[in-house]
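Quick review question:
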């Protein structure tokens, strides 16, 4: 007999975060399926304390394969996917039973809010990702890294709805993952191997660019992201295209290519008019081109947005003040 919700996870050396993650799913998950890919710390012990079913497998540099192994072991009607360095918000924990009871959807996009390092211009970054979906044998993950379930659901006629469910991701505030593994180096190796077999896959080039950018290899990152624009990227989805143009605008601004920075920022804003980073890049780019009035108006939009996640509040006010002086307002 099926239970309601199966929490499905893959882990390796995640003792630092796992307990908090599993506690956040208490009361929602009727069962917990944890695929361990070779932990040497207390990860497995913590999982078993939460009465999780632990499945062990060797790591083959393929996140989708490990994800799909967790799905095969699930008996619930619904699958909830978390990473060990994530927590389901309390409000979302309370909402999930009603969401799955009252909807005819096959999957839900949830907000995955990644906390960014203190040195980053953003406090956090939000992405809409399918993390809650019906347990169907033909719904399986694809891509060896930054794995995706959406394509499989849609290919099989499933309907995906957007929700306001929130998962908080702590991991991007640290460089090392799984205890001692360098995140960027690990992901880049997997992506480059995948590109040998799928050289024209825009999503792989996009993720390669994002990874190189996180490693400080910005020239290479910019080249990879430009490559995406030469490919058929229509199927990548609006959330990913928003991030692509946001990051391209940042890279162009750093290169003092102000025209391109403003262009990419505006393309980002076409997907999400409230993207604070794109508004800020556009404002600085416009000011750098001596388009003071246009830059000033963009700065005011950032202030009006209110919910901006920028760490630039003081700098923003200084720029607005400088614009007012130049415009004699």
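Suggested answer, residue by residue:
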């Amino acid at each position: 007999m099926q239970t309601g919700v199966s929490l499905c996870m893959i882990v390796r050396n995640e003792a630092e975060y796992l307990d908090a993650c599993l506690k956040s799913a208490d009361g929602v998950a009727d069962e917990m399926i944890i695929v361990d890919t070779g932990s040497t710390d207390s990860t497995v012990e913590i999982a078993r304390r939460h009465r999780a079913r632990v499945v062990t497998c060797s790591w083959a540099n393929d996140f989708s394969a490990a994800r799909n192994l967790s799905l095969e072991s699930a008996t619930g009607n619904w699958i909830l996917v978390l990473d060990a360095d994530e927590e389901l918000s309390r409000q979302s924990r309370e909402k999930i039973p009603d969401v799955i009871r009252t909807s005819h959807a096959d999957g839900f996009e949830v907000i995955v809010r990644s906390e960014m390092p203190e040195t980053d211009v953003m406090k956090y970054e939000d992405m809409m990702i399918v993390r809650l979906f019906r347990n169907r044998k033909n719904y399986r993950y694809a891509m060896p890294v930054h794995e995706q379930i959406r394509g499989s659901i849609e290919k099989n006629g499933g309907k995906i709805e957007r929700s306001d469910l929130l998962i908080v991701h702590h991991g991007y505030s640290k460089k090392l993952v799984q205890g001692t593994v360098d995140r960027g180096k690990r992901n880049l190796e997997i992506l480059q191997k995948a590109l040998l077999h799928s050289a024209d896959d825009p999503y792989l080039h996009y993720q390669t660019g994002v990874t190189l950018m996180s490693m400080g290899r910005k020239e290479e990152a910019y080249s990879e992201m430009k490559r995406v624009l030469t490919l058929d990227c229509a199927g990548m989805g609006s959330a990913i295209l928003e991030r692509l143009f946001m990051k391209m605008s940042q890279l162009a601004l750093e290169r003092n290519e102000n025209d391109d920075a403003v262009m990419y920022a505006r393309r980002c804003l076409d997907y999400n008019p409230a993207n604070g980073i794109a508004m800020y890049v556009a404002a600085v780019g416009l000011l750098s081109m001596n388009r003071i009035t246009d830059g000033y108006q963009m700065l005011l939009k950032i202030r009006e947005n209110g919910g901006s996640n920028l760490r630039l509040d003081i700098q923003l006010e200084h720029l607005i003040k400088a614009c007012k002086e130049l415009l004699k307002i």
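Why it works: The first helix runs from residue 18 to 24. Strands lie at 5-11, 31-36, 53-56, 78-81, 86-88, 107-115, 124-134, 160-169, 176-177, 181-182.
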